[in-house]
Amino acid sequence: MDDHLLANAIRFLTVDAVQKANSGHPGMPCGMADVATVLFRNHLKFSAKYPKWPMRDRFILSCGHGSMLLYALFYLTGYEDITIEDIKTFRQLNSPCAGHPEFGLLQGIEVTTGPLGQGIANAVGMALSEKRQNALAPVFSHYTYVFASDGDMMEGISHEALSFAGHYGLNKLIVFYDSNNVTIDGFMDLTCSDDAVSRFKSYGFFVQSIDGHDYDAIDKAIVLAHEAEKPSVIICHTVIAKGAPHLQGSPASHGAPLGEKEIVAMRKALNWPYPPFEIPQEVLKTWRAIGDKYTQDALNFYSLPKYSHKSYVPIADEDMATRKASQLFLEQLIPDRPDIIIGSADLTPSNDTQTKTVEVFSKNNPTGQYIHFGIREHAMAGIMNGIALHGLFKPIGGTFLCFSDYMRPSIRLAALMKLPVIYVLTHDSIGLGEDGPTHQPVEHLSSLSAIPHVCLYRPCDVYETFWCWQKALEDSRRPSLLCLSRQKLPMLSKNRPIDAAYVLEDFGDSCVCIASGSEVQIAKEVAKALKGKVISVPCLELWQDPKTLLGDKTRIVIEAGCRMRWNHLLRSQDHFFGVEDFGLSAPCQDVYKAFGLTVDQILSSLKH
Fold first, then answer.
1. Quick check: 63 and 147 in contact, CB under 8 A?
2. Whole domain around residue 427: which residue ranges?
3. Which residue among 205, 292, 308, 415 is least crowded, i.e. fewest CB within 10 A of its CB?
4. 474 labelled catalytic
5. Residue 563: which of 446, 391, 483, 459 has the closest Cα?
6. What span, in angstroms and rounded, lies between the C-alpha atoms of 373 and 163?
7. H helices within 194-276, ranges in order?
8. What contacts 88, CB < 8 A, 6 or more positions away?
9. Over the chain (608 residues), what is each successive 10-residue block's mean pLDDT?
C-alpha cells in the first residue's frame, strides 16, 4: 500500500481529534506523519499486542505537544488499550489521550513529555541503558528513536544531553529533528540562527539532512543511521501541517485547530473522501499488520535478572558527615546490585557517590556502573528518568542540594511519572559554611517538598542515613531525595528504633522539639534544657500521624532553612527557628550563630 495513504490516516485522525476537542497541536503530527510512517512500517521493532516487550525499540515523542501523532499510531497499529472512541475524547476529562502524553495512561507511551527537551534526555538515558545491558548480555539490543522539534533543540537540556550521548558513543540513539522552521511566536529566524549541522557534528553525532516528506530519503537515512558507529541525528526538513492547503507552513497551524473549512479543503487536496474518524479498511488492515509484525518475537520473552533488597548495618562507630555515611552504605550496596547505575554531576569527591570497587562506565567499558555525567545537572536528571523508564536499571545521581534548581523540571516529571529514581543531594544547609550563599540551600527543602509524590530524606547521623537509604531503595513508586550534610554530625540514633518521625530523647513533657538532619543535635540540647521531648524527622513525607506523636504541648521546630515545609505542624502558639534569607560566607558555626541557630540563642529567644 502507498505510504501516502498510511501517512494521511495519521493526518486525518489528528486534525479531526483536534477539531473535535477545539484544542491541540495539529501541525507537528501532520508534518512528521511521513517520517513516522516509514519508521513504523520499515524499521521500528515493537509489538502492539505486547507493548512492554523488553527487546522492543523505544520510540519517544520529545515534542509532546504533538501527542496526536502517538495516539493515531497506537490506534492504527492495534494497541489494545486505545479505541477510536478514545481518540474522539482527546484532551477531555479522564481520557487516556491527554493533551500531552502521560506515562501510564496508555501502554505504548514510553515517557511523559511536554516540557521541551526532556524527551531527548530521556532517550539518552534509554540508549545508555541499552548500551550497558547489551555489553552485559549481547542478546539484548534495540534502538532508541526520538522525534524532537525546533523547540526541543532550543532548550538548553538538549545541548547537555546530546553532548553526553556523543561523548559516550551511544550509537543506538537516532534523533529525528523535525526542522519545520516554526515556533509559537513565529518563524525560527525570529529567535534562532544556529547552524544545526555543525552543532550536531560538534557533539560527535553522525548527521544527515533530508526532505522529511521524501519516503525513499527517509528510509535510506535510517539505514545509514543503523550503520553508523556514532549516535545519529536526521534533520528532517518538513512543512508544518503538511496537507492543509491554506495553513501548511504557517505558525498559525502550530497550536490551534485548523477549522472546519480548512479540514474540508484538506480532505479534497489529499483525496481523502472519508468522514471524521473513519479509516478505510485496507489502510487499517495494513497498519494493523505493521503492529503485529513482531508479535512472535515478543512471545519469545527474554528473561531478565531480578534483584532483591538486603538490609545493611553501619560498620562505623564515629561521628561523621551524612554524605560520608551515605558512601559507607554504597560500599555495601554496589557489589550486590549490578542493576544500579550511579553517578555525579562532576561532584564525585563532594557527593561521595563513588565507591572503591565500582567500575567507571566509558566507551571502552560499557559494563561500568559509575557515570561521570559532567557539569550537566539538568541532563543528568533527565537521563536518570530515561534509565528508570527503560526498566532494567536503577538510577542514582548526585549533586549539591543547591543545584537541584537545575534539576527541578526533571525531578517534577519523575514525580509525575512515579519513577523510583534516587538523588544524592549533599551540602544540605548553611552548614556547608565558607562557600557562601550561592551554594547554601535555604528554600530548597521546602521547595522540593512541595512537589507531589516525592520523599525527601534528611538524616541526622550514620544510622538514620542507612535507614533512609533502605527506605529509598524499597520505594518503587516515587523519587527519593537524600539531603546530606557536609559537616560531621554526632551519633544520636544508635540503638533506637528509627522511623519517619520518632522520639529520639524524652527529657520531660514541657514541649516537643522537632528537627531533621544537622539540626537534630540542636533540638536535643534545647529539649534537654526545657525538659521536653526531641523528635527526629528523617522523612516528613512518610510521617503518617503527626498529631499522635506531638500531642498538645508547645512545638518548637528548628531547621536551617525556610519554614514552609513545616507550616502544617505549626500552630499560633508554636515556634519556628530557621533561615528566611540567603546564607553567609563564613565557617559553619559562625553562620549558624549569625542566624540565631545555636542552643543559647534559641533558649534566650524562647524566654522573651
1. yes
2. 322-484
3. 308
4. no
5. 446
6. 10
7. 196-203, 215-227, 260-269
8. 17, 20, 277
9. 94 98 97 98 98 96 98 98 98 98 98 98 98 92 97 97 98 97 89 93 98 98 97 98 96 95 97 97 98 94 77 88 97 95 97 96 96 98 98 97 97 98 97 94 97 98 97 96 97 96 97 98 98 98 93 97 96 97 96 97 94
Please give the pLDDT value at position 132: 97
Selected catalytic residue, list 130, 377, 505, 541? 377
Report which of 424, 351, 344, 347 is spatially closest to residue 380, judged by C-alpha positions.
344
Q: What is the pTM of this model?
A: 0.97
One domain, residues 602 and 458: no
Question: Which residue in this structure is represented by grid cell 479522564?
Answer: 94
pLDDT of residue 441: 96
Helix (H) or strand (E) holding 211: strand 206-211
pLDDT attached to residue 300: 84
Q: Is residue 21, in this structure, part of any structural domain at all?
A: yes
Same domain, 459 and 511: no
C-alpha dihedral sign at 88, 92, 94, 99? positive
Q: Which of 242, 263, 298 marks a domain boundary?
A: 298
The CA distance from 566 to 190, in Å, is 46
